[in-house]
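Lab meeting, action items carried over

1. Structure of the two-component assembly. Owner: GW. Status: complete.
Input record:
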Amino acid sequence: MTSGKKRSARRKGRLILLNIIFIILCLVTLVPVFYALNVSFSGKEAALSGSLSLLPKSPTLDNYKTILVDEPFLLWLKNSLILSLGTIAISMLCAVPAAYAVSRWRFRGRQATLRVLLVLNAFPQILSMFALFRVLKILGLLNSHFGLIIIYAGSMCVFGIWNLKGYFDTIPVEIEEASKIDGANDAQMIMRIVLPLAKPAIIVTCVMVLITVWNEYLFATTFLLDSSTYSLAGGLYQLQSNDYSRSWPVFTAASVIASVPLLIIFFAVQKHMESGLTAGGVKG
Amino acid sequence: MTQKKKFKPWLYLMPALLLIIIVIVFPVLFTGYISMTDMSLYHWNDYHIIGFQNYARALFKADSGFLEALLVTILWTAVNMVIQLAAGFFIALGLNARGLRWKRLYKTLLMVPWAMPAYISILLWRVGMFNPEFGVLNKLLSLFSPGKVDFLSNNVAAFCSCMVLNLWMALPFMITTIDGALQSIDRSLYESVTLDGAGFWAKIKYITLPSIKPIIAPAAVMTTFITFKQFDIIFLLTQQRGYKTGATLNTVITYAYQNAFVSNNYGLSSAVSMLLFVLIILFSLFTNRSLREN
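Predicted assembly:
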């Protein structure tokens, strides 16, 4: 009896300790987020002063007003939307049929294609950035959204093929054969049967493409030379690199606005994330 | 009919392959070509083919800095992976402790760094945390002792600072993966060894680790690649134009970037890129094979 009581007391103690550890861990993790919120609601002087306060002393929305009205934030937002949607459209139009082909049919050259795609997926595009710069310059696509979309779409297409192929593999062929008997041709069958079944994987892939393009600043600031064509990431990067002591509170306000939609999307799809992503896996 | 069947897969693959060839394969080949020339800011159009001189310079001239960057990258990848796996494992283990009521809340809060846009996180850390004048870390330190610490001013400090930030950004993925793997372990396995009198560490060694290894391995390999390729953290923290912090830390990726876009040494940069490409191909073929055998 007493030993059982002792054990449960010890277990309770351990759980309290564990809870304390996790509370500290969560707080430490969130310090940069608290900091950004705090500075974004503070006046200009408070942000750069040496004092340490938990809440802004005189809360103000000035920084949010500045970023939305005085800076071309809405223009950047529009550009980011154009870039992300364009990239999603092109990369998915290319990736879906390709992933379907390598998942459903066994043909000569399939293994080799998959292996090459795997290697290309591991290749960091930064390494060929200079070559891309020269190619775009020759083609007259520097400073154009289309040029940047094509570049994003290329790397996202490789990722998309791998991710979707893994998911297509898990859809039984029998379902398709049944519809073939009903007289549907390939394209109809993919549109009506396969795509609806693969919805989770397609959503996750699109979200991953969206997040990647949304957060990309290096190619955006290298290949887009005119700040009115910048994406959100490129614009914010430029904003802080020009004169951060002046624009720092404004930057924190901008980063709060830019992060919130992503946090919402992330937590909305997180449940599908594991099933939609790991199915792609590393299997050959 | 058979002829049609042979071509159909390629018809489906065509748009993707075309796009990939234009955007990825051709630039790689072009990089290979540039690596054989003396292309630089002064030789933008009137460059000459100089053979393998750029490769020789990268590999055999100590002052080129490439080998040093390679060593730093290997150290960076190894240290980060060890800490990430260990920390991720113990945090996930804690989350799975029986009776932890707020598990979902903790897990959600710990995921926030993963959901934040990476460049925003890094820039927030650069000024908000590490800045010697008004960064939070220095404000906290000033409570205990006067004097400011510049966390990015020299290579060792910058390496550690970048590593802390990388852990902050990468741990959520590791925790999620290991947490998922832990939940897939059959509980009855533990009960049977508890009867045999096995303690906490023995259970970890004989049941937990062997059970989660096959699930963790692909994620660990993927993270190794990502850590090896990490560019943003080191670039944004220490190398932004106009905000050089005094650290001269370079990984191979930032080294290639610096040579292309800062010192405009396109030939050398391309040679380094090709060397890295070969390295990455070998590594990915090797890991892919060993993963499949598992």
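2. GW to write a short summary for the group page. Key points so far: Chain A has two domains: 2-61, 64-278. The radius of gyration of chain A is 25 Å.
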